[in-house]
Structure formats: structure tokens, C-alpha cells
């Protein structure tokens, strides 16, 4: 009687499933680590609130928020236990294979909302800045440039998104046109929760790796347009060679003058400072990432530096705005997230108008913020603008 031989670890079935299981485990542990960090912060917030109420019997008296360490002992025990578990999960992360290819919507949203925390705590859910093709596979700068005859084009996504959201019928048709014209095309994946100035500096460093004199075209949606401006600002300060090769830059629904919803969120958060009882809850409002907070005023420079409204003089710039109204009558909220004036870089104060270079401004009606990624009118305008 023949007995079946045991399955070897080197058989194809095991080899093919092991990396997938390892990546799945890595993502699971990374999520657990992030959850524990969040639970620790929430426990400290509750402890601080408890200690503040205990030290200020009346909600309208007192200025200082009590430290969470002044809360009763059970709070300290829970906090230390959560910190210990977070440290343990991080130790596991160091021995597990990283899931570098994963680019799901959940992970993109986590990067957008708490991206700076992912970096601070070394969590592998962090999207490092990489070039990708339309299938999500990583590219090198040399592969991107490839045999591009006319130049190279890079698409930059907005907050809480990735290269995946660009992939739709209208966009793919536009990409085919670009390749027929002789352009090399790539998409950028980055952690949209980091400060916009930091992502701009990293993009500038990535573009500096390009060899030769290939002309560069950058196309950004929403926050992606601010990252373009941040990269240009950084390159101008550092005198980076790639900036002289920037030929075209397009900004689709970019909040150049800021996003009202983020300003509203900041105002609501400040209301919590009215009493010492609610002041600890301001920490909840501050959970939103640095990148999202930068959208408040469209900041593209590091904290402490003067806000820049200057576009590179030698390049052509296309600013595209949309609104949800019908006909020429603008909807007061623009595309639902970004007002028309903000997307066009305009302001009632002429000193705050975006300026520099050859600027073309285009406006569309009956179009929402996310719909701009798939609307044929957007790509028709881009193609017309890019054609020689």
C-alpha cells in the first residue's frame, strides 16, 4: 500500500501561500499596533478629563488641564498595559515580512487620517513615497523615463487616496493618448497624512534622481496639487536641477486658498477650549493628521516659513476648478469640498492671488470633487493643453 508523502515546504503550493500569509499577518499586527496606540491616547484623554473635573469642581473656573498622571491608579494601570502591548506588537512587526504592495482603500484612508502617527510609531501601514504603474507595481525613476520621447508625466493623488483612484475609463483613455504622444507615465503613492511640505521635499528628492534632460509634467488632484507646489518651493530653495526641466504642472480641484471644511473643523475644535472640562477633548480634534490640517489654508511650506503663493515662472500651469451648480451660476460650495476661487488660486485680496509663469484657469459646472477624476471634460482640457 502506497502512503502519500508529506508535503514539502518547498512545494509550489506552500511557496505561493507563505508570502501572502506573511503579508496578511504583518498587516494584521500593524493594525493591532495602531489600535493599541490609539487606545492608549484615548485612555490618557479620559484620565486627564477625570483629573481635571476632580481638581476643578466648577466647569467655568480654572485654566489648567490636569495631567493624566494625576488620575486614579486604575487609569495608570490600563495605560501602562496598553503601552506594553503596543511595544510587544511593534517587536513582532520587526520580524514579519512587510506588505509593500498593499494599497487598499482602508490603508490609504488610515494614511490620510493618522499618517504622521504611522511615521512617528514606525507602523508599516505607512505608505512610503514610491512611483507606481497603473497596476500598482513599483517603478524606478529609470523605468518611468524609459523610452519617453516627449517627456514624463506623473499623477499625484489627493488625501486618503492612492494611485488606484485614478484608474477609470476616462483616465485610461487619456493615458493611452499620452503614451501615443511619446510620454512616459507613472503614478505617485505617498502618505497623505504627513505635512504637505515634507511630502514636497521627498517628491523633489525623487525627481532629482532622474537622469538626462527629460521634460517633466506633474498633474495633481486636490492635495496632490499642493504637493507639487511644495516640491517646487523646496527645489527652488535647494537649487535642485529637476526644477529647470519642469515644463507643465496641472492642479485639479486643488485648495490653493484652503478648504473651508477643515477651517470649520478647527473652529469647532477651538470651542472646546471654553471650559477646563472640555479642554482635554481638544486632543480628539488634533488626532487628524498634519496633512489634513495643512489643507486649512493650503499650506505648502514648513511651519515657521512664510506661505508661498509663487509658481515657477518658467513653467506652464493649468488650474482646474469645478462646482456643482448648473450652467454658469456657481454653487456656493464649489465642488463640494473646494470653492472655485480656491481651486483657481484667486482671492479678493490681490496680494493673496496665486501667481507666476504661464497660468491657464478653467472652470467646469455640474461636477463634484471626486468626479473630477473620471470626468471626460477634465481629460479633454488636459489633452488640449498638453498637445503641441
Give me the CATH superfamily of the largest domain.
Alpha/Beta hydrolase fold, catalytic domain
Can you name the CATH architecture of the largest domain? 3-Layer(aba) Sandwich
pLDDT < 50 runs, ≥5 residues: 1-24, 57-62, 265-269, 271-275, 277-282
Q: Strand percentage, roughly?
A: 5-15%
Descriptive report:
Strand 1 and strand 2 (138-139) form a beta hairpin. Residues 1-24, 57-62, 265-269, 271-275 and 277-282 have low confidence and may be disordered. It is globular and about 65 Å long. The chain has twelve helices and eight strands. 42% of the residues lie in helices and 12% in strands. The chain starts with 11 loop residues before the first helix and ends with a helix. An eight-stranded mixed β-sheet has the order 2-1-4-3-5-6-7-8, with helices on both faces. The chain folds into two domains: 12-99; 130-260 and 291-386, Rossmann fold (3-Layer(aba) Sandwich), CATH 3.40.50. With 388 residues, it is an alpha/beta fold. The longest helix is centred in the first third of the chain and has 44 residues, at 12-55.
Produce a short descriptive summary.
The protein is built from twelve helices and eight strands. The chain has 388 residues and is α/β, with parallel strands linked by helices. An eight-stranded mixed sheet has the order 2-1-4-3-5-6-7-8, sandwiched between helices.
